[in-house]
Amino acid sequence: MTMAVAPARSAGPAAPDPVAMFTSMVLIRVFEERMMELRTAGEVIGPVHPYVGQEAIAVGVCAAMAPADFLVSHYRGHGHAIARGVDLDALTAELFGRAGGLCGGKAAALISDRRTNLLMSSGIVGAGVPVAAGAAMAAQVRGEPAVSVAFIGDGALGSGVVHETLTIAAVQRLPLVLVCEHNGYQAGNRTEEVYPEVSLLRLAEAHRVRAVGVDGNDVTAVAAAARDAVEFARGGGGATFIEAQTYLTRFHLQFERPSPEVRPADEMAAWRARDPIDTARQSSPLRDRLSDADVETIWEQARERVEHAVETARSCAWPAPEDAATHVWAEES
Amino acid sequence: MNEVGLLDLVLEEEFTRDPNLVFLATNSPASLRRRFGSDRVRICPISEQAMTGMAVGAAMSGLRPIVDLNRASFAMLVMDQLVNHAGRMHYLSGGQYRVPMIVTSATRGRQQLGPQNEQCPYGIFMQTPGLAVVVPGSLRDACALLRGATRWPGPVLYFVAPELNRQRGLSAALAAGPLPFGEAAHLRHGDAATIVAIGGAVKVAADAADALAADGVHCDVLDPRTLVPLDTAALAASVRRTGRLVFVDDGPRSGAPAQILSRLLDEPGVAVAVGGRIGFVCQPDVPVPSSPPLEEAMWPTEGRIRAEVQRVLGEPE
Where is the signal peptide (chain B) (predicted)? Predict the structure, then answer.
């Protein structure tokens, strides 16, 4: 059931604007670089799992989603949140642990955002997959056209619940899109050290789920694959597993200091040469539509936007100690 | 819910009332499936983690799912979905999302299911914030609390003892309206001692109290009905009056009884009133063996309860 990515269709939603996608990727890159600096400086709290190098996947997938669609992310989720349109000030304040943060400082990176239907960013590998399937089931039960999208890493295929959910998604034809960002690393392990083969498509196919491979550093290709999968799900076709090949160009996580992980030099050089932002810049149509000055403006505006968010976060109050005990129980309505 | 069939009828009524109720299980009631269709009443493979995780996502998206785990021992399979997700998402999201879902399962019966599948794990979930824990002590409360669970704003773990199936009064039980959570039932009244009985042990505790009363020893018998939220006020008021406390539970001593005791000792006046006059008639902290003579030692019986109450009565004031 592996299939090539379908060409963009004339029917369905409008094709995403390449300049908007490029701008979003740049914003994620600038944000991630700044958050790592601010974690080292002790202003950002908790662990930071940088999304650098994977921006095309978040941006391409979110460009294919409608506002009513559901999204489930995980701890390496800043990029997903930004691509989905989560308020950058509230996201940043949350990463600073402030009361004005998206979740009042309770979540740090493990955010939810009801405004954009971001259900959760789980800190447990693979755990968001059945949650996304449940949201897909809700749409199915209510006869609503919403699709549920979950981002996972290649490491999530090690989790049994992901396989359980793939089986149920296939048999119940759930409107679900699983986007597997195959970045080659599972915390400290390389995927080939712990999996019987590196391609993950056959794992999805074994559960009879439609499986599609795509170059995860090519935002246009990702957007096309995601659009196809979302339309397939919305039309009642069922679930799709997208394996987007990419690379963990920085490290698994950092606290006070970046993790001292080492990447093979030639491998790193090859992936750096295929950086998703540079790739988008040099490919049509951006090659012709944006001048170097335009691109520099996009970077400068991203830096200004992120600095604004950082200043806003700095100005937010810390939560009051008694807030630790709020929201344990939902109020009866 | 095949252990207590009457609950399927409760569900049918609640499914009619609330179109957001859906059911996920490896074995869903045929009549429910016939009436409400395979979209709302789903049969799943033996994938408890996926079912429970799906319930979290469906609950966050506006449905009210019920997952029937069948056996309470299977709760061990879904700890991540229950503890890290169902019970945490309201908190983690800063109150943005609710997770109104119900997970049902059967606890211990005299069925020789052995060390793995004869369990009362509800005490574990008294230390996992965000999860309501319901353990009905009568067939009527089983129906009424299930109705209450379908109105609760967050996740509910509902543990029912197969022994409740032996009770009569089916139509009265079915007619009972929804019970609010956090209100203990005060089943017998007396000043000699407070008996706190849970789930399948409630009936035997009440029978023991009746036998003691015939001998002139009148005890309070309280059934918390929901362990979370716990009606600490009602239990503490009784203990402050009687000064003696005996727990009766089908589950292990270090489970719900120890949890309830620690909460009561936090209440003003309870520790002084009760002194050391505390007794337990519970499953010892060992697994439940299969062979009937071995299993027998694991049950609270009328004789054991009477003996424990008398022992506590003999302790000095």
Answer: none
